[in-house]
UniProtKB/TrEMBL annotation, chain A:
Pfam families xrefs: Cytochrom_C_asm (PF01578)
Protein family according to the UniProt entry: Belongs to the CcmF/CycK/Ccl1/NrfE/CcsA family.
Locations listed in the record: Membrane; Plastid, Chloroplast thylakoid membrane
The entry's keywords: Chloroplast, Cytochrome c-type biogenesis, Membrane, Plastid, Thylakoid, Transmembrane, Transmembrane helix
Gene (UniProt): ccsA
Membrane topology type: Multi-pass membrane protein
Assembly information from the UniProt record: May interact with Ccs1.
Transmembrane segments: 12-31, 43-62, 74-91, 98-118, 138-165, 225-248, 263-278, 290-314
InterPro entries hit by this protein: Cyt_c_assembly, Cyt_c_biogenesis_CcsA, Cyt_c_biogenesis_CcsA/CcmC
GO MF annotation, one: heme binding
Species: Stylosanthes hamata
Role summary: Required during biogenesis of c-type cytochromes (cytochrome c6 and cytochrome f) at the step of heme attachment.
Protein name: Cytochrome c biogenesis protein CcsA
One example of a Gene Ontology biological process annotation: cytochrome complex assembly
Chief place of localization: membrane
From TrEMBL, chain B:
Key words, A-Z: Cytochrome c-type biogenesis, Membrane, Transmembrane, Transmembrane helix
Lineage: superkingdom: Eukaryota
Transmembrane portions of the chain: 124-148, 189-208, 276-297
Region (Disordered): 85-109
Every ResB-like domain range: 129-390, 458-542
Main location: membrane
Protein topology in the membrane: Multi-pass membrane protein
Listed HAMAP family: CytC_Ccs1 (MF_01392)
Originating species: Stylosanthes scabra
Protein name (Swiss-Prot/TrEMBL): Copper chaperone
Entry keyword annotation includes Transmembrane helix: yes
Cellular compartment(s): Membrane
Amino acid sequence: MIFSTFEHILTHISFSVISIVISTHLITLLVNEIVGFHDSSKNGMIISFFCITGLLITRWIFSGHLPFSDLYESLIFLSWGFSILHIVFGFKKHKNDLSAIIAPSVIFTQGFATSGVLTEMHQSAILVPALQSQWLMMHVSMMIFGYAALLCGSLLSVAILVITFGEVIQNLGISNNLYFLNESFSFAEVQYMNRNERNNVLQKTFFSSSRNYYRSQFIQQLDRWSYRIISLGFLFLTIGILSGAVWANEAWGSYWNWDPKETWAFITWTIFAIYLHTRKNTKLESVNSSIAASLGFLIIWICYLGINLLGIGLHSYGSFTSN
Amino acid sequence: MKTLLNPLNSSNPCLLKTHFLKVPIFNPFFKFKPLPHNTHHARIAQVPSFAINSKLKSSQDINNKGKKSVSQKIVLSETSSPPLADGKVDINGGSGSENVPVSSKKKGGVSGLAKKLSKKVLQILSNLNLAIGEMFTIAALMALGTVIEQGENPDFYFKNYPEDHPVLGFFTWRWVLTLGFDHMYTSPVFFGMLALLGASLMACTYTTQIPLVKVSRRWAFLHSAEAIRKQEFSDTLPRASIQDVGTLLMGAGYEVFLKGPCLYAFQGLAGRLAPIGVHIALILIMAGGTLSAAGSFKGSVTVPQGLNFVVGDVLGPTGFLSTPTEAFNTEIHVNRFSMDYFESGEVSQFHTDLSLLDMNGKEVMRKTISVNDPLRYGGITIYQTDWSISALQILKDNEGPYNLAMAPLQINGDKKLFGTFLPVGDINSPDVKGISMLARDLQSIVLYDKEGKFAGVRRPNSKLPINIDGSEIVILDAIGSSGLDLKTDPGVPTVYAGFGALMLTTCISYLSHSQIWAIQDGTSVIIGGKTNRAKMEFPEEMNRLLDKVPEIVESSSSQQVDTITSG
């Protein structure tokens, strides 16, 4: 019993810490740049990382098996994956733009998992015979890390598309609401003052003000981040799919059954392979590949949650209907 | 640090293009005639012009299969060879830019036409946009295959995709059945797309990627400061020496080549070559998958405890390449079937003890299998996939034992319900009543009397009698039956090899290939570099490295080396 209260406490701590981090980011974005908050948001993410780690370890010890057996646990693992990504990639740069995307992802994932929709799954359950295997560890952890990285990277690509086309729409005078977007990204100007690198400047006809220059620099920066993170995610996804296939061969005798979940994982892999290949063509590489990555974002959610909603096929362990 | 040659003429320092291959894995494309001195330890300036015997493989030679490749003799001296442009090299031509006489053989008429046609086809197939389109189409077909129900009878499609109000306005059952969408993953459309993608993969590997190996092994020095300043990252160190830069780069893990005032360093070349491995691994997986689909056997059987079966009776072929082996004559005997349970009563694992007997009745293998732990013998693999209850063995009024066959009443994954019926009284009357026995697993049996009222629960091991409607029933045993899946698959080794290669090469292709050029211009060093993947971290890493370069401060009498950070 003590473990479940411990779990509750950890969940609540991480939830509230991330809410605070997100609020500071919103304040920074909308009001003014408050320099001292960067450290505190970094510390906030570290605290939530430790909370989620503690949560997972508690469940592991309590139930005797790795916390992968159903949807609730895999969602908590996904939010853990997000916070690891933040720590690994975020500490390389002093000014971390990534946390604006990662922190809300963590909180939404965890909030969804903890919410009332899945309450019956909060108790740790036993593993059915088919899941009692060493491959469970590798396959599920690689898949979820892959999803976390790919989701993060594709959100960055969505951000690129929003900035690129938001500017177009705004300059056409269609919408004035997007003006605040331009203002809010001006904080990125500071770090581009001293760069002397040659840049692939987006040749737009209204390239006049210095703000456009910094915006294109920002887009380029986001583009590079997105490429690196998606490459990492692609790597994890490949390993996850292949280890799943080998596991299926050991358990059921055939490494590919065209199960809906397997098929959609393969579709996700294909879309991100398309992403990587569209970057070979250096004209318009950021826009085309961002479109592919944004499509990938939707497809990951179909693959991860949509198939489980239907509850069919060999992966029905993670469905809402099964207990 | 290796000094290959010191030039005689200091104004054109980097004219000589050296092709110096270090990694022994690749076949040497160029063979050096041995120089009068040992090149590895050369620090002294020697002969600036030397003769290289080389076998040039131009693109014409690739087409002239079987004909001897022409060998030319190239004499390089500082007067005859033209100055090199910066590192761009033509992929197709190789070293065709040097003035070398190439005598090519004449191509005969029809074979020449076939060669030109195949070259054109190869060019079309290795187009990147075509490949992206193919991948997209395959993804869309797969998605469609999950939306449309697979493997149902035609009636299902008549009902769900009717012609009078078609889905999306045009999609009727005619589309589904003619295009084969009811068995999407084995339909000709899907296979055709996969075959096309495979052809594209092979064409791309041949035309673009293998020449990439040759290109990336060629190290071209940049000889002009403007070329270096045009790189993605460039910087100038006012008072530095290029030797220090070279040493620092070597310490950071780069491979450094220094020739006079020019420097070239690179790191992570594997990251550029690994995508070739990825494509080859994919081709391997596709080949293995084809072999599996066309050449394997599969079958499944439910065997009650104590019975046996012959392997060959159970297996059926899947394609035209399937050939049975000697091991198909093996007889398999199910010695015992047992189940493990959790404390809550649910099934945790089920095991089958199997004996394999050959044609002479000799036991060749014995193993207990369970889920995730199959048996492998002679290319055949036996998996434990399912279980059921076949019969109850009971004593009625101390008569027996009677075996009552159990029938499945409800199956929901691992939650199953079996039942059997023992008639009481007149068996031939139309509404015969009896004792019903239900079981969820082999642990306990629930008994009901002839009115359907609950009578009691008994465990088979306890052998406790129960009295129902005047009869005394003793449940002796619950006999389970084991659900086994058998399979032979000749493509598995190929596919596993492809999987391993794919995992490894995908990991390696995450590395970033960085190249750095530098030139010593008087007392300052101009340095520039680029990288193909880690574009964000590269400038910071370079800046950190350049901060460590010592600044050379000249005093009136001697040279002092200061460690004040520069750059």
